[in-house]
Structures
1.
Amino acid sequence: MSTCIHESLTLPSITIAPPAPMLDHLCRFYRLNTGYEKTLRLIQAICLVTLELGVLDKLTTQRVLAAKSQIALIRRCIRFWNFLDCFNRVSALLGAAASDSRTPRRHPPAPTGGMWFIEVAKWSCFGVYFLLEDLTLLHAAEIYPVPWAKTVVGEAYKFWFYALALSLLGAVWEWSGLVGGGAGAGGSGSVSSKAANRGKKGGNGKAGGAGAAGKRKTEAGGAVSRARKSALVKRVVVDGCDLLIPGTYLGWVVGMGQLQVGVGMVVSTLVSLREIWSSV
């Protein structure tokens, strides 16, 4: 009797629905400091553009100006330890150059020659920029004002400019290598197609299979090359727009005002956000 009562009182099983794909993607995106910082950067850039357009009333202008300065301070706190990542990259590059070539590699090969020098110099400059910027954080927060803050910020922006210029140079260098290697890829593809045709005409299955394998390999290499070229174009857009910030501050880029800097920040941040969103 009790068994029958328990069976009659048994509750139906509850199925927990999986999380919504969009919400799950947002959670993974904002777990990253990069995604969070770039979102704040976009808001800061929009505030800058709005202020430069001069379409706000006096009270709203004061609020937007306060929001822009506070967001900039928050972003500096988020990227406080970025110099460690930069110097870690430099250490990895130096270690890869000094490591024994007989050691098996589990990661993609490190750049060599001129590209290796550009990468080491670029990440060194980025590291020095972040480190110098950190020295003025208390001044920016109005906790401990110091008279040398403006000088240090100027020097930091110089290293930021150098790093972005080196990044652009590296992108152009790598692009030229991909374009130069395209002819070789095309040549190998034509050789593979000839081998496939010979296999078909001669009735040799082994040769035909080798030609098909070579064709597939060439197509895969072409897809990788196109993807890499697309990444380089985005990198040039991002670094080129970001270069306006230290360039205008230092007076090295003339003919550009804060409105153009703000628009460049919006463009570079949107491109970066799209890349981060795709990677999570």
2.
Amino acid sequence: MPHFINHNLKVAKFRSKEICFFFFSKHVYIWYSTCRGDDVMVKRKPQYVKIKEYIIQNIEDEKYNENEQIESEHALCELFGVTRMTVRQALTELINENVIYSVPKVGSFVCKKSRFKSFDGLNSVTEDCAKKKEDCTSHVVLNELEEATALMKKEMALEDNKVWHVKRVRLVNGEPLCFEDDYCNYDLTGDIPLEVSSTSLFNHFENDLNLHIAFSDQQIDAVLAGEELGKYLQVDPVTPLLRVLSITCLHNGKCIEYGYTYYRVDKYTFNQVAYRRK
């Protein structure tokens, strides 16, 4: 029997294909979809992904502490109504991502890495810490007006030759997490007070300057800390760091911020769920 969407639309299934009948006055319009049932299902989030996100969210919300055991495979099977194989797929991926570790015949436990940054949204370090109810502070190394380099003029599409340069160490609960080296579009921001550079730049841009941040084009690679970053982040100079280049723009397309953030890999983990598309 056809399923009624509304008074004017009927949908019928025929050999895994959809035929839609749209009634308008006395005429019948037909929309024919060649999508297979399997193709429609691809759009749904796989169950093992939901399990991963559930565990990660519990870690972020501190429902699990470091080295604390999470639910058993049997408990997760009952919670999500899935097979043990699906649960094991989720746990195996989390083990490979260094989120949890497994103790044979005992269970799965939370790794020491407990801070995650998801790629599904644009949040500042301050905002990430606020969600986890952690204390975020800054040690400002540099806060001054400078002449823009040729690269900055090109990447930021500057109308003027001036940028406001901010270098700072971001600390979480008193421990160095990352080092930020940012150049701000002086035409948009003007002078940035030291007390602002010590807190959240995003908050200043949006709430004090009424600017609307839209997106950030980001690239990630790995570098060695070196002497300067090693000193500020309290790591050995040959320690690898995750380097994130961010080019942040407003709704009107103007670039407001260009810079690098260097993360300690023992303090921060980036989390991404990637969906296969054909």
3.
Amino acid sequence: MVPTASKLFGLKHFGLIYSSMGLGNPTGALLVSGLLAGFAYDAEAAKQDSSACVGHDCFERHASLS
């Protein structure tokens, strides 16, 4: 990740850019695992006319995305 930050953006603000790039992984994990999986689960539960989803269909869409 260090060569990527220095080659793409230069060394003038290297510390700030390197730290910002390091925040991408946890931010993406939060979005995919927390929000997207929750929406997919709720959509499948709504298809089953229930508040809880039963079966492999509940997580199939999320598993194919990640």
4.
Amino acid sequence: MFKFTSRKTLLALSVAACLSGQAVANDTAIVLQTNTGNQENLVQLVQTGTATSDNFIIAQQVGSGNETDIQQSGTANEIDTYSGGDANSVLLKQDGSSHLMLVEVEGNNNLVEVNQMGVAQEATALVQGDDNQISIVQDGGLNWTLAEFRGNGNSYEALQDGVFNESAVIGGLGNDNTVAIEQDGFANVGGIVGLRGNNNDIAIQQFGDENVFIARTFSGNNNELNIFQDGSGNEFQINPLNGNDNVVFVDQVGANNLIEAPIGISGDNNTYDFVQAGDDNYIFFASVGSGHDLMISQTGNNNNGEMILVGSANVGTIETTGDNNYAGIGLVGNANNGRISQNGSDNFALLDVAGDRNRLNVNQAGNANEVIVTGESVNNNNVTVNQRNGDLNLVDVLLEGNGNTLNVLQRGSQNWVGGDNAPSFRVAGDNGTVLITQQGSDNLVLGAQGGVDNVLQVVQIGSFNTAIVNQNAPN
């Protein structure tokens, strides 16, 4: 066992030379340095063992301008180091399996680099101060990294290659920080938990199957979160994100992927863009606030996309390309805009509105399209449905309120405009407008418009058309 305590660089270098030249299995090295002046301390430790090695190192520095360089080769190695002061550099490397590493850095302009090669490795980096950098590279399986930082301008980067890897930023606090995590393998987990701050830039890439990324209790303004998952059975969860002017991009490529945000986001003027390419994907998202821009894009078969927007002046868009797609938008509030575009077969769209001055638009191109629009005690809303180049198009409408406008255009065969869970549509209220145009064969319009000062127009072009509408029906 070697133990050295010094304030001088020269003695630290002697320690490093001794350790690098004479290290054997089961060695333990402890170095403590305290700098009360302007000296720049340097510690270098090298331990090399065999398959039965069980090396252990503790290196501690207190002061400014310090540097620690530790390398271990073997199995079951452990590193525990602390640096206190400004402009510190800690460079760590472990080559083998079952490593354990804890790095604590306190001060400004610090740099921490961790390189572990092997399996079942664990690295924890705790940083407090400004302008710190953390870079972690792990190669193998069962790797685990955790970073926690306090301050501004911090940078954290983790690269993991293998299976069952985990990497997370927990309890971060500060502004203008950068987090980059890349995982390649199977059943990897990445997460941002409890991060608070503004102008943070977070990028996550996961390659493989059954990967999961979780963002929880994430708060702040002007943050950007960019997630890319390539594989099958991947999952992204955000629950919740609080703040204003945040941007979130999620891109999933593969089959059976999931995006969930049941209590989603709260704040104003946030932008969310979700993309899924593959089969049997699912998205559910909810937001509370004003001025949000939410976009869901799905390409493939049997996709499901749902969003709920609570607030005002929000824009929600769902675009699907493929077969048997379902898209649903719920608007609660005023002056919101909901858009659904489906290009494929057997598409189904649901729009539910609770509020005033909202605009809803559905565009379906394909076969057997269906749209349901519902709203009770809503005023001055505008609903437009366009179904083209499809057979068996169906529009079910139930709107109650004043000043609402419904515009339906169907181009195809066997078109139908009726009511939600009823044989006829119903638009109730005063000063409403209903415009229905059908181009095709076997068209049918059944419905009722209740109230006063309403306008109703039905245009049918084709064969076997039927229009039965009861205007000024009781509300």
